[in-house]
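Hi team,

Filling in the usual template for the complex we talked about on Friday. All components are listed, including any nucleic acid strands or ligand strings, so the model treats them as one assembly.

SUBMITTER: L.P.
PURPOSE: interface mapping
COMPONENTS: three
RESIDUES: 930
SEQUENCES:
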Amino acid sequence: MTAGADLYLSGISKRFASFTAVEDLDLLVPSGTFFALLGPSGCGKSTTLRMIAGLEAPSEGSISIGGQDVTALPSHRRPVNTVFQSYALFPHMSVLENVAFGLKRKKDKQAMAKAKAGLELVELAHLANRKPAQLSGGQQQRVALARALVNRPQVLLLDEPLGALDMKLRRQMQLELKKIQTEVGLTFIHVTHDQEEAMTMADVVAVMNGGRIEQMGPPRELYELPRTAFVANFLGKSNLMRGTVTGESGGLLSVDVSGRTILLPAERAVQKSGEVVVGVRPEKITIDRVAAAGENQLTGKVIDVSFTGTTTEYLVEVEQIGLIGTFSQNRGQQPAHQGDTVYLAWDAEHSFGLAGDESVNAGVES
Amino acid sequence: MSVDLRSKDELRAEKRKNRTGIYLISPGLLVLALFFALPVVILLAMSLYVKPPGAEIGEFVPGFELGNYATVLSAYWPELLRSFWFALIATVLALLIGFPMAYLVAVRLRERTLLQGILLVLLIAPFFSSFILRTQAWKQILADEGFVAQALKFIAILPADGHLTATPFAVVAGLTYNFLPFMVLPIYANLGRLDTRLLEASGDLYASPMTSFAKVTLPMSVPGIFAGTLLTFIPAAGDYVNSALLGNNRDTTMIGQVIDSRFFKVIDYPGASALSFILMISILILVTIYIRRFGTEELM
Amino acid sequence: MKNIGRWLIPVIGGAAFIYLLVPIAYIFVFSFNDGGRANLQWQGFTLDNWLNPCGAPAVCESLVHSLQIGSVATIIATALGTGIAIGLVRYKFRFRKLTDVLIILPLATPEVVLGASLLAQFLNLGWELGYTTIVIAHVVFCMSFVIVTVRARVSSLDSRLEEAAADLYASPQAAFWKITFPLLLPGIVAAALLSFAMSFDDFIITNFNSGSFQTFPKFIYVSATRGIPPQANVIGSAMFILALLVVIIGQVISYRKKKQLENA
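RESULT (copied from the run log):
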């Protein structure tokens, strides 16, 4: 079992005749990391993956794997394998032959034995002689995974591999993929538009937008401290408000938002003066019919109530600020009703600050 | 956009520009250029040759005698028109007979693959028994002494001294028969992709089977019908085996026969070439009008 | 009213299929005729014709010629045509429009014109009409059929499969022979069969370019006036039955293979 390798992208750009897919990308993925590239359609994540695989040549920049510059190497000479979204299983070969394909090209004498073991790893050894067309979607996906894994590549690329599976199977495969990755110690690069999936599986998440990486880091860090409006809205939900910094004391910034004062720690702010955007995650806000404790307080009228079972989501109209959303964990309490006046409160340490030129709607799913 | 769902821009930009493409295409293209394009040019040239005074039969010199065209056109325009007329009737008949055949195999029998397979084979296998043999067989089947003629005389559809063979009727029947598979196969290929759930949806929206057919099936089978009519009409217009075997020499002669006889019996190369060229151009014109009026760009 | 529509199709369709087979049946029946050379009137049942299919002179000779020409022309047309089909779909180059026109024109040209133009060319070049000229003529008109058939197959081939092959260490050549070619093969085989059928059954173009060289269709045409020997019926029926058998056997084999896989 060989461990994975470092992947290093330096100054990578990809320009097509009519648009630029990737702009000046720098990326270092340490070996053995489960890395997720997250972003909406058209953000350039797939193009980046294709460039790593060698299926696409970068317009500029270099790629190196395990210290070796592979930029000029064609796909079939790179120590990289891909699990394609469409699986791309060879229809005229059996499942076993599919899995053994890469090994055979490398003239591996043990190809068939290793292929069999690979199928056992994904629990499909009993279907070894079937043709891909006779398998279900979930089974095909596992064959595609086995076919890539069995070559023990230094970097394994996964392109939205769970997209076509139903919820239950997806969850199952997410756990299995993570387990295999930790066991075998490969570097996984996972491309997806599903932020829950990225956060569940990855050690490091990079959020991509318009050909650039907006923010990169462990999932929790990205979630709790987004640095751009896009990340704040794309990863989970955020309440964003515009205001002006009025002062700083004791490490806390005061921001005037339409007459109310909102506090946030200076170290959680991208911009510390002038016009800024202040944000807070909905689940950090408490909602009650009486005023509650909390450094930041707002009051408003309930516009919408959504009971989802585990939580109740409220949309509260706060005068001159706009709509604030909160999640209230269902502990059996009586929810507020539409039209009620309620009090919102949260701790300063949960606020985050973004640059003033950000659009509060960036990254919101339309 | 996923790794393997690429935008049209990317696909176009990334189509490999390397030399392999040229190597693959050149040999075949060369053959087509040398033995199809060039001959047509030579045909055109030859249609303008002149027979010098006092020359022997078959001797011509390169010239520019446009009069050749006038000569053959004035002599043979009835045959030319008749060829198109026969081909048109045969095409329409082939469509009327062939469409139900194609529909039966492609739609109705979609579940019964065995029966479907058998019928398909029956459609194609006759190609392997010579079509001249089959046309000749029709001649004998429709002969005066044969069962069919006798039966028709018996029920007085045919007059007592009438015959089936050596008539325009026989020629058109022969044309229809011989080119039927060319009509059926494209329609079959097209109908094979018809999604029957569309018909279900149509029924769900209160359409009767007749209406569903007219409003859903028929419009969707247009590409197949289009290809089939072209593949039938074009060869039929130039055919002469049917008219030679099943016709007489008075009112069934088709242009193909004329060209053949002027090449090989009368040895009038320029005249024959001119006729061939006229035939080709008129078909090209007709086909172009047809395509413009009805058709799709992608025939293939 | 609804019911009429239901059986209208099967009735007309079925009748049409029977109509298609009437001459074949006639040919088959008369292949057993003890009618001497003319074979016009039924004179008695005999197996002689089947037992001695080369009994009439020139029948077998012309048949062998047709088979030879068909094989050679098919091989050449299929090879050249497949190259063009793959090149057109997968590669980018200039003169694409021109190529498309050059390919589809033969299909839009009546056989009379194809035959005549080639004849004009051979006459002007002073070439002797015979085996070679026939093969050339057949290659030309079969190529278009091959291109159309294979091209459809190539277009429907998922190019992502070749990317997957490259991703799995296959060089471009390996990817072609291991992935592309096997997947194209059914289309290529279909094109070859179509080409052979077209070539074998061709009369008009052959007639213009063969001089005195006999092919099977030519022989039948020429003897149509004098009387087609029953041996020709034997050949015609035999070819038909052979074609039927080949396809049926092919279907059975693939059906059984499918069943095998399902139980694997």
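MY TAKE: The CA atoms of residues 71 and 148 of chain A lie 21 Å apart. Chain A has a mean pLDDT of 89.

Thanks, L.
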